[in-house]
Each structure stands twice: as structure tokens, then as C-alpha cells.
Write a structure and sequence with these properties.
Helices cover 44% and strands 25% of the residues. By secondary structure, the protein is an alpha+beta fold. It has five domains: 112 residues; 124 residues, 2-Layer Sandwich (Beta-Lactamase); 101 residues, PAS domain (Beta-Lactamase, 2-Layer Sandwich), CATH 3.30.450; 172 residues, Heat Shock Protein 90; 125 residues, Response regulator (Rossmann fold, 3-Layer(aba) Sandwich). Helix 14 packs across helix 19, helix 15 runs parallel beside helix 17 and helix 22 runs parallel beside helix 23. The radius of gyration is 58 Å and the shape is rod-shaped.
Length: 748
């Protein structure tokens, strides 16, 4: 018996209200009931065995008589015999299979194949003829092919009755021809295109009900399956495209760590043409690792459910060891690990670069350390040089100041004035060198002060105008009144240093009879920050384009033959401008003079700051009488000490002297002084320690440092030791007197 028919019967007739069964006839003229549904079992008082059915209805002999007749006849006699019990009907479904329906009288006959969702078509075949005649078509077949009725009696080809798409028709006809010719039963798939409906896919299987006479084709709609297959193919293609375009080398393995597949990047990395070289092999088989155990253990952990990320390692590839990082995850199916997937990246270049960076950092650290030592040695040298040069300059300038206060003959006045000018020139060069060193070491601090442009301009003009007039140079100034009278906050000393350097250069290189113009302007008067522009022009020789490219480099001058200056002025000016967040530009050409444009931001001063500025300025201009004030001069240089003593005594002060720190402490302990002038570098005890010991018993007497060392550390140490102010050597007499009056204006 056809098992498919039995399955269909049990599936689609099991729940029908109509009682039915399948009866199979045997060659010995016997038959047996091979299947019955629930409704029939109820009829026979819930009996489930076929023997009870045969006892309940004595149909055995009748069915035998019927089946001995022509099996193609309608079995009308059967209904007549059994109508005293039921309205019954028999239908032959296969050559030796009968379907028996036992129906209550008011019910109609039932087609056993009518309700199944599988298309069933039966075709009568006459050998020697190409046409087939449809004898039966169930409902599912009619719906799928859009046929009307059973189409019985009409002649068809299989492709026509199934409405096969033209693209598949030839293949279908060839398949059916092979089947009719006696080939084994086969299943084929094709597209059908009934009119006014969408094309769909079917899977069909032909079978002989009566060999070479009655053909049955069962077919199933597989459109959804084909769509899934198409989507699956698309997804597979997309996945493969992703795998083949990614730069990472990807692989997947089974639970035995054997390769199943790899992507294109993996093959290219190792130089393989096909993944077949790898399939079924492990890493150990490929010999990629000098020590395979760590990699094996790593993958065994992954097969236990762990995930690893960017694990570093080494692999042997194309004749060299390469650095890689690998990530691996377990492959799961129905909650079970069925393998692993991993990827790796070659990081050899990154590792080498990192090693190079580490090596370079070590070299750089060593170089920086050497540079630090060299800078420290240079700073120490400059510190000693500053001290050693400022000390004799203090003597020269102090002696000149002392002599110039006397009533001398004009010739002597010129001599001492020249001595002082040359000494100040040498001091300027020394200051430039020290300033440049401070700038290079980042030890030059910004100290904003309240100022007005008019006062700053007056100070600068007092320095530059005598120099210009001495060379018969016309010095013209044009100052914006708003700039001149506006109070702002900026490091005035550094602004002055920048402009003085620029003007000094102009005076230096402008020939007698030439002109220098200095004017300024302001913008942003209503903002918190002002922008002040200074323009300094001359009609000197100008500068070449080549020199302008390097003019801010230290020790650089336009002419090597020039002996004027140190070549540091512009370098210092540029660095100071950068510190103040300003800008400086230059326009110059040989024979056409030079113009520098300097733009500096100034912070507007508040009314409180302005009031404090005028109060402090009043104290600095105090005319307090110094007569009778006692001062202790602590200076180890006897000549400088005598000069300072003579200058202060000329102001009416009473001077006492100490030549080392210990002596100063002893004198301060024994008697009262209105003020103490304390040198830093002294024998026995330096000025720092002397100040600290004095402060243990005297916290009120002002102590002012006098030092040839002008680095910020020196100044900071002075204040930390207890000193009240700091004056650098050589001492500027007006500044010294102003400082004395500031501290002595209030009784000590």
C-alpha cells in the first residue's frame, strides 16, 4: 500500500464527522481494513479493532463480490445493500485500495483527497499517444493552477495542466518523458504561472496508479521555501562579501579545533590559494607557532564558552615571525558549542613602531637630561658671570655717579659721563644675555602692573631721545590721547623693554640727519581687553629679505661688520611679544627704511586697581627727608661699600658697614637701624641666613636685598628669607633713593 496515501488519510480524515475507512484487497481475494477514523469507531460503540467492524456490518462477502467485477464500475449495489443501516459509498483510490464512507442518510458523499493541501492530478495515459487526459483534480490542484472543474476529458501536457512557466516547461516535459519511458520515480521542481496570479514554485512527484495507464501527480507549493532559500543565498552572499572585504583575517573551526573555513584576507595573509589546504587541519598541523600550547589552551577555553579579545601572540608566516592579536568566540547551536570563530590582525608594524618610540623616548630622555645639565651649567656660568661682571660695574657706575654729583670741570663731566654710558652699554648687553637665558628656561615671569601709556612713553622717550639727538636724528612721536590716558594692566617693564629694543635698533642703524617716528593707536575701548598698536618707522638702510627670515634668531645682525650691539635685541623682543600674547611684523627693504608694527593686548584696569596705582605712585615719589636716618650697609666689596656709603651720606644718612653676614647680625642685634641694605653673596654667612637670624629678634626693620644675581630664584629666595625688597646691581641711585624713602616715610 502507498504509505503516503495512508498518511494523507489519517491526517485529513481523522477528524471528519463522516465515518470512513481504507480497505485493501489482496491477491487471494481477501481484504483487510487498514485504517479507520474516529467517527467510524464511535459507530461501532467505540471499538477500535477492525474485527468488530466486520461483525457489526457483514460487508466482507459483498465487498468481495464487488471487487471481482470490473473495478472501474460504480459500486452502486453496495449502497442498496447497506441502506437499511446507512447511506454508504465506495470509491477506488488505487488499484487494490478502496475508500468506504459510511454516512448518515442526510450527509453527502466525501472525496478522501479533496481537502488535503497537496495538489493531486490524475491523468489517463494511452501508450503511443503524446496527450494526457485529466480524470481527476482535487481542490488544492484547481486552486494552484486556476483550473475550472476537473478538466476531465480534455487533452493536456503536464506543463500545460500545471501552468508551468515557459522557462521551466522544457525541463518538465523532459523529466516526464523520462519517467513514462520507465525511469525511476523522480521529483522535480518548477515555477508555475497561472493567469492573473503570481508565479509560484512547486515540488511535484509523478507515480503510476495503474502502470502505463493511470498517472497521478502530487505537487506542493514551495514558494515560501524558495523565498527563504533566496534570502539565505543573499545572506550567504552578503556574509561572504563582508568576510572577503574585511581586513581582519577570519576563520572558523569545529570542536576538534580543525579548520572549517577562512576568509579571503586569511588566505592572502598566509599565501594560500584555497581554503581546502586548511580544512580538517589544526594550527599544530600547519606549524605556525614555535610553542603551540598557549594557543591550543586558549581555544580550548573558548570551546568551553569563554570569549577572548585581542590576545597578543606570534605566528610564523612567509619566512618570518609576525606579531598578531587574536579574538575568538564560541559558535553556538541550540545552546550547545559546536565550534569557534576567530579573527586576528597583524600588528608587527605597530609593535615595531612602539618599540622604536620607546627607544626614541629613552634617547630623547637621555638627550633632554644632557641638555638640562648643559642648560644648568650655562645658567650657573651666566649667574657667576653676572655676579662677577656686575660687581665691578657697580663700582664703575657708582664711582661715576659719585663724581658727577660733584662740581667738576666740563671736561671731567664728559669723561665720567662717557664712563657711565659705556658701563651702562656693557650692562645692557649683560642684561640682554641674562634675559635671553631666562626666556629660554621659562624663568621670566609675567608681572602685570597698572600703567598709562603716557607714563610708559615718557620713560621710553627719556631713554631714546638723548641717543637720537646725539646722532642728529629727528625723533617724532604721535600718541593717541585715548591710549595715553587709559589705565590698563600689563607687564609694563616688558612692554618698555620691547619698544626700547626696537627704538634702539632704529637709532643704531639710522644715519645722522635721518628720522624716526613712533606712534600708537588703540581699539576695543568699550571691551574688557584693549588692543594697543605701536608703529616704529625709520628711514635707515633697511633690511634684506634674507635677513628678515632670520632676524629674530639670537646673535643675528644684518652686517657682520657691524659692531653695534649684541644681536640679541630683536630675539628678546620677539620672545617677550609672544609671552604677552601679542604680535610683531616687519616691513623693510634695502634703501627704503624699516617699519615694525607691534600689537599688544592690554586688560582694562578697574577703578579699585587705578586707586591702588595712584596710592603706590605717591609713595614712590615721596620726598621724605633721609637726613639722620641710620642705615646698615652689608657689602663684602670694600670699594662698593665705600661708594654706597659716600652717596648715602651725601643725602644726610648715617651709615654703618658690615663686610659679612655674621657681622651684620651682630650689629643689628646691638643697635637699632632704620633700614638694612643686605648683599646676598658674602663670606662667613650669606645674606639669606643673616636675614633669617635677624628676623628672629627684629621683624620690623626693613631689609632690602642688593645682589648682582638677578635670576628669579634669587629674588624668590630673598623674599622667602624675610627681605622686604630686591635691588639689582649695579644700583640705580634714583631707584635706591625712592626705595629708601618708601620704607622710611613711616617711622620705623
Amino acid at each position: 500500500m502507498n504509505t503516503g496515501l495512508l498518511d494523507q488519510f489519517m491526517l485529513w480524515n481523522g477528524s471528519l464527522n463522516t465515518a470512513c475507512c481504507l480497505i485493501q484487497f489482496h491477491d487471494n481475494n481477501s481484504f483487510s481494513i487498514v485504517a479507520s477514523n474516529t467517527s467510524l469507531n464511535k459507530i461501532i460503540n467505540n471499538a477500535v479493532d477492525f474485527t468488530s467492524l466486520e461483525n457489526f456490518i457483514d460487508i466482507k462477502q459483498h465487498l468481495f463480490r464487488v471487487f471481482t467485477r470490473n473495478k472501474t464500475e460504480e459500486w452502486t449495489d453496495y449502497n442498496k445493500i447497506l441502506n437499511r443501516f446507512f447511506d454508504c459509498k465506495c470509491q477506488m483510490v488505487e488499484i487494490n485500495i478502496c475508500a468506504l464512507w459510511i454516512i448518515e442518510a442526510e450527509h453527502k458523499s466525501t472525496d478522501i483527497l479533496g481537502d488535503i493541501p497537496i495538489g493531486i492530478i490524475r491523468l489517463r495515459f494511452v501508450p503511443g499517444m503524446d496527450d494526457l487526459h485529466c480524470s481527476y483534480m482535487n481542490r488544492a490542484a484547481r486552486e494552484m493552477t486556476c483550473a475550472m472543474g476537473n478538466s476531465a476529458g480534455n487533452a493536456f501536457t503536464v506543463s500545460k495542466i500545471l501552468q508551468v512557466d515557459a522557462a521551466d516547461a522544457l525541463n518538465v516535459e523532459n523529466t516526464m518523458a523520462a519517467f513514462i519511458a520507465g525511469n525511476d520515480a523522480c521529483t522535480f521542481e518548477c515555477r508555475i504561472a497561472p493567469p492573473q496570479t503570481q508565479t509560484r514554485w512547486i515540488r511535484a512527484r509523478p507515480v503510476w496508479i495503474i502502470p502505463q495507464k493511470l498517472l497521478q501527480i502530487a505537487f506542493l507549493d514551495i514558494s515560501s521555501e524558495k523565498q527563504l532559500e533566496a534570502h539565505s543565498r543573499q545572506n550567504q552572499a552578503l556574509l561572504q562579501k563582508i568576510l572577503d572585504t574585511t581586513q581582519a583575517s577570519i576563520f572558523w573551526k569545529d570542536t576538534q579545533r580543525r579548520f572549517i573555513g577562512v576568509n579571503k584576507a586569511f588566505l592572502e595573509y598566509y599565501g594560500f590559494e584555497s581554503e581546502k589546504v586548511l580544512q580538517g587541519k589544526t594550527d599544530e598541523d600547519m606549524g605556525w607557532h614555535s610553542d603551540p600550547d598557549p594557543y591550543k589552551n586558549d581555544e580550548l577555553r573558548v570551546l568551553q564558552g569563554e570569549t577572548t579579545t585581542r590576545v597578543p601572540g606570534m605566528c610564523f608566516c612567509k619566512g618570518e615571525n609576525r606579531h598578531i592579536v587574536a579574538s575568538k568566540s564560541p559558535l553556538m547551536e541550540n545552546g550547545k558549542v559546536v565550534g569557534l570563530v576567530g579573527s586576528f590582525e597583524d600588528v608587527t608594524s605597530e609593535v615595531r613602531l612602539r618599540n622604536d618610540v620607546v627607544e626614541l623616548n629613552c634617547k630623547l630622555k637621555t638627550a633632554l637630561e644632557k641638555e638640562r645639565h648643559a642648560n644648568q651649567a650655562k645658567s650657573d656660568f651666566l649667574l657667576r658671570m653676572s655676579h662677577d661682571m656686575r660687581t665691578p660695574l657697580t663700582t664703575i657706575i657708582g664711582f661715576s655717579d659719585l663724581e658727577l654729583k660733584k662740581r667738576l670741570k666740563p671736561d671731567l663731566i664728559r669723561v665720567f659721563a662717557t664712563i657711565k654710558t659705556c658701563s651702562n652699554f656693557l650692562l645692557g648687553i649683560l642684561s640682554d644675555i641674562l634675559d635671553l637665558q631666562k626666556l629660554s628656561n621659562g624663568k621670566l615671569d609675567i608681572k602685570p602692573t597698572i600703567c598709562t601709556a603716557s607714563i610708559t612713553a615718557k620713560n621710553i622717550e627719556s631713554i631714546i631721545r638723548p641717543q637720537a639727538e646725539a646722532k642728529n636724528i629727528t625723533f617724532i612721536t604721535h600718541f593717541n590721547c585715548a591710549v595715553s590716558n587709559c589705565h590698563s594692566q600689563i607687564d609694563t617693564r616688558k612692554v618698555q623693554q620691547i619698544i626700547v629694543n626696537l627704538l634702539n635698533n632704529a637709532v643704531k642703524y639710522t644715519q645722522p640727519g635721518g628720522t624716526i617716528i613712533w606712534h600708537n593707536d588703540i581699539s576695543g575701548e568699550n571691551a574688557d581687553t584693549l588692543s594697543v598698536t605701536h608703529v616704529i618707522s625709520d628711514n635707515g638702510p633697511g633690511m634684506s629679505r634674507e635677513f628678515q627670515a632670520t632676524m629674530y634668531a639670537p646673535f643675528t645682525q644684518e652686517s657682520s661688520s657691524s659692531s653695534n650691539g649684541s644681536g640679541l635685541g630683536l630675539a628678546i623682543a620677539k620672545k617677550l611679544v609672544d609671552m604677552l600674547n601679542g604680535s610683531i611684523t616687519c616691513e623693510s627693504a634695502p634703501g627704503k627704511g624699516t617699519t615694525f608694527t607691534l600689537v599688544l593686548p592690554h586688560k582694562k584696569a578697574s577703578q579699585v586697581d587705578i586707586a591702588a596705582y595712584y596710592s603706590n605712585n605717591a609713595r614712590q615719589t615721596d620726598t621724605t627727608d633721609l637726613k639722620g636716618k641710620k642705615v646698615l650697609i652689608c657689602e663684602d666689596n670694600a670699594i662698593n661699600s665705600e661708594i654706597l656709603k659716600e652717596l648715602l651720606e651725601s643725602e644726610g644718612m648715617a651709615c654703618d658697614m658690615a663686610f659679612n653676614g655674621q657681622e651684620a647680625v651682630n650689629k643689628a642685634r646691638c643697635q637699632h637701624y632704620h633700614i638694612i641694605l643686605m648683599d646676598i653673596r658674602m663670606p662667613v654667612m650669606d645674606g639669606y641666613q643673616a636675614t633669617r637670624e635677624i628676623r628672629e629678634f627684629d621683624i620690623n626693620t626693613p631689609i632690602v636685598a642688593l645682589s648682582a644675581n638677578v635670576f628669579s630664584d634669587e629674588v624668590q629666595n630673598a623674599f622667602e628669607s624675610g627681605m622686604d625688597d630686591f635691588l639689582e646691581k649695579p644700583i640705580v641711585i634714583p631707584k635706591l633713593l625712592a626705595t629708601l624713602r618708601q620704607f622710611l616715610s613711616t617711622p620705623a
